From TrEMBL:
Keyword flag Hydrolase: no
Localisation: Cytoplasm
Family according to the record: Belongs to the RecF family.
Gene3D superfamilies: P-loop containing nucleotide triphosphate hydrolases, RecF/RecN/SMC, N-terminal domain
SUPFAM superfamilies: P-loop containing nucleoside triphosphate hydrolases
Protein's recorded name: DNA replication and repair protein RecF
HAMAP family xref list: RecF
Binding site for ATP: G30, Q31, N32, A33, Q34, G35, K36, T37
Amino acid sequence: MELSELTLSHFRNYDEAHLTFQPGVNVFLGQNAQGKTNLLESIYALALARSHRTKVDKDLIQWGQDQARVAGIIVSRFGKTPLSLTWSKKGKQARVNHLDQSRLSSYIGQLNVILFAPEDLDLVKGAPAVRRRFIDIEFGQMNRTYLQLSAQYRKVLRDRNAYLKAWSFGGKKDAVFLSVLTEQLIELASKLILLKKRFLTELEQAAARIHRQVANQQEELVIQYKTAVNVQEISDEETLKQALTLAFEKHADREKKQGTTLVGPHRDDFVIEVNGVDVSNFGSQGQQRTAALALKLGEIDLMHEETGEYPILLLDDVLSELDASRQTHLLMTIEDKVQTFITAPSLSEVARSLIKEPKIFLVKDGTIQVEESKEQEENHG
């Protein structure tokens, strides 16, 4: 899968821009606050219909304008597909092949991206919410069923939490209605948990393979899925439903007092262990960064297995956060396999020696110029 063209209109600090990309590595070079990350954000938003930097869509609209638009041409094994997203006061409009999409779940998955930014190094040591978001975003791109189940689960969870909150403040107390909401939540939770379990098992296999290579075969990475029930020993939906029912019964009084749902995949987490040690709490910074890198690179192969297409990789100023060894491994992993977009103030000697003929864009104050290659310069000379 490749992004061959990108068009921006009043997106962030760009008035109008039209870029064409090569299948290999494309690099956006420039100093801070010039618009490099805005370009990566536009590609991310084109894929997922949301920004990775803000939850407020109007932040994407250039100051003084009424709307912003991002459009692109995707090249996959199915041919060329035009995609576009428009943000305005009326909301968000998504189109595939120039046709409006009434549901974002039918739009997401047309373009698959993996973003690796400095904050992703907190994936290992950060809060559980960071890892839950990671699962939801990455697996949601690969599996439409997961995306739809997640949306349904969040809706029922909101309804149940609202009812529990009213209950805790002395409002209407209908035990039958609460049990109906609980049954609906358990039905959706059991499906989601089993999908998460499968995703994490497959990700573990891919990430462990890469981790061994980066660590010179000295360390073994394992992912432990943490949920309300012992899902490691459960493989069928009915048994999981029974286990979840018991867990809800156990927490029923606390939920009514606290006014919130205490059981379910919205509270899940996963722990990364290296040689049996939880690296989030006891690992060195080097081990944490190696584990985060292995997870991100493991996603590339996993997404290919799930969708039949390699994703697009977005590296937002992450090379400067990695030492020479990890830079080398990252760049050798993506070589000739994944279309990659890199932002950086400048390219290190390591990067320049490993990246074959990158297409370089010079970004300054919302304007973009293509840097001439050495071959072009010689021809001009």
